[in-house]
Amino acid sequence: MQLGFASLLMDGTPSTAALGELRLAIERERDTLGELARVLSATPDPDVARVSALRRIRSEHPEARVIAFSEFASTITSLYSAMRADAGVGMLTAREARIASGRIARDELLARFAPVAQQARAAAAHESITLLLATDLLSEGVNLQDASVVVHLDLPWNPARLAQRVGRLRRPGAPREVRTYLLAPPARAGMLLDADARLRRKLEAAERLIGRGIGVLPALARESASSLASNMPQSGDASATEEGAFTAHLERWSAASPPADAASGCIVAGVAAGINGWLAALDDGRVVSSTDGRISDSPSAALRVANLVNGKSRLPDGDETNEAFADLYGWLGAERVATMCGLDAYAGPCRRAMLDWLDTLTRELPRHERAGALPLVGQLRAALRTSLPLGAERLLAGIALKRAVSAHHALQSAQTIIEDCSRGRIAVARRDTRVIALIMIGRAKA
Question: What does DSSP say about strands 287-291 and 277-282: parallel, antiparallel, or unpaired?
Answer without folding.
Answer: antiparallel
